[in-house]
Amino acid sequence: MGRSRKRPRAPKSNKLPPITEEGSVVRRKEPRPKSPEKQETLPDISQLSLQPRVDPELLALRRENNQLKAERDCRICRDHEANRLVMPCGHLALCFRCSPAVTRCVCCNGPIRGIMTIFRT
Ligand SMILES: [Zn+2]
Ligand SMILES: [Zn+2]
Predict the structure, then answer these.
(1) pTM of the shown model
(2) What separation in angstroms does the CA of 48 have from each of 38, 45, 51, 56, 77?
(3) Cα 87 to ligand 2 centre (Å)
(4) Which ligand has the shortest distance to the CA of 113?
(5) Domain presence at residue 117
(6) How many domains are contained in the chain?
(7) Predicted local distance difference test score (pLDDT) of residue 108
(8) Mean pLDDT across the chain
(9) Which residue has the higher pLDDT, 121 or 63?
């Protein structure tokens, strides 16, 4: 007679999961036809709003700035800013580290009669 006592397995716990699954499925079915319409319109708006953000003039200025910075760098190590001016040709292409190791100008291969240190403010 112990079976009759053990059999009641709490029917609520067995019924609860299927109810929630059905409810979630029913809820998903309702917005489905509406969501694709909204998703199609959303990317168009985001693309339009992104395009004006990228200013072509600003990009050009940034490129120019990068080029100027690259031209400022030492032609030998590219690690430090060139601040040694070669005389007499006047090329500014060496840093304080590389200038002593160079006997000829790295730009025009001209002779180095002297080196001037440039201080940028
Ligand atoms: Zn250098
Ligand atoms: Zn030179």
Answers:
(1) 0.47
(2) 16, 5, 5, 15, 44
(3) 8
(4) 2
(5) yes
(6) 1
(7) 96
(8) 77
(9) 63
